[in-house]
Specification:
TIM Barrel; alpha/beta; three-stranded antiparallel sheet; eight-stranded parallel barrel; 13 strands
């Protein structure tokens, strides 16, 4: 395990039980947690994007703000739903945020998952082409995004521009060199992981995937990663890919940890349907004293296959407690998994 970061969904709720009661709280606390995680030595600060929900939704202002407040930590998403995105406008936003951060963006994309509203992307002005699905549309948006990130000119310049143009066709600006190699695809199946590998995207695999074999979640996820690496090798890309997995895990090192997570959390996978036709398997959560937690995680085949681990954090418990959760893993668990 080379890198460990956190992943926040940025939930907020206007209730006395929540430490994150507004959208402003979610955004500002996300910045503070990224700063704290960097100070603790974590490698990444990642954020989930959900539309029409009391969660983080517009990633680029947040990523730019985190980039301006930090110096070393990777800053990413897991994931941006590409059904909702204008890929050219997104390329400008991503280029600007990456330049502010000094080239530290790690953008996770996806074709999307079930959302809070029916066909939410149509309210953003997008509809699939005739005979295509919304998933096809998301993947097509991703392909366009990847293409423009190459930084090649494609637009015919105005012969009478307001400002002088460089010679040739024009590209989008600002362009951030190297960002194209730091794009990830959030894959929930073996087939989409192969597709991502062919396009030269890194792989993000979360705590759920299509139940393709009936085997335990971590076994299926490890097989997915191996399928991805074989497809990457076959595609002949010049550089090596990265692979991340997400886990809910808590090292119980004090009474507060035991009160929050010491009992009642599922210690086995669960199976359900994320839509009418897709049977999915959801990975278990981990919560135990450090020695036992290390023993359990060593049996997780997907963690062994990946190079990056993202810790999903309970953000509504506040910045200080979440920093403690991250520190406990980095101090008591991560070295035994080969981190640093």
């Amino acid at each position: 395990m080379k890198k460990i970061g956190f992943l926040s969904f940025g939930h907020w709720a206007p209730s006395p039980q929540s430490g994150t009661r507004s959208a402003a709280d979610a955004l500002l606390q996300s910045i503070d947690l990224a700063v704290a995680a960097e100070e603790l030595g974590a490698d990444g600060a990642y954020f989930r994007v959900h539309h029409f929900a009391r969660q983080l939704a517009s990633p680029f202002p947040l990523l730019a703000a985190v980039g301006a407040r930090t110096k070393r930590i990777e800053i990413g998403t897991a994931v941006i739903d590409m059904r909702y995105e204008n890929p050219l406008y997104m390329a400008e936003d991503a280029g600007a945020a990456d330049l502010i951060a000094g080239g530290r963006l790690q953008l996770g994309l996806s074709r999307g998952s079930p959302e809070q509203v029916i066909d939410g992307w149509k309210y953003f002005g997008y509809r699939p082409e005739e005979g295509k699905s919304d998933a096809d549309m998301g993947r097509r948006h991703a392909e366009v995004f990847l293409d423009v990130l190459k930084g090649e000119g494609f637009a015919q310049p105005n012969p009478r521009p307001m400002f002088p143009n460089p010679p040739g066709l024009l590209r989008l600006e600002p362009h951030s060199e190297g960002l194209r190699d730091r794009i990830w695809w959030g894959s929930g199946s073996n087939a989409t992981s192969e597709w991502a590998a062919k396009l030269g995207m890194n792989l993000q695999s979360s705590t759920l995937k299509d139940d393709e074999t009936g085997e335990p979640f971590h076994v299926q996820q490890a097989k997915q990663i191996r399928v991805y690496r074989e497809a990457w090798k076959a595609a002949g890309h010049a550089h090596s890919p990265r692979v991340s997995v997400s886990r809910s895990m808590f090292a119980l090192v004090n009474d507060m940890d035991r009160a929050y997570f010491g009992g009642g959390r599922p210690e086995q996978d669960s199976v359900g349907y994320i839509d009418a036709n897709t049977r999915a398997i959801f990975g278990r959560s981990y919560a135990a004293e450090p020695d036992r937690l290390i023993e359990e995680l060593r049996k997780d085949e997907a963690i062994a296959e990946a190079d990056t681990l993202l810790l999903t954090v309970p953000n509504q418990l506040g910045v200080d407690y979440n920093a403690h959760v991250i520190e406990a893993i980095l101090t008591h668990v991560a070295p035994a998994l080969g981190w640093r």
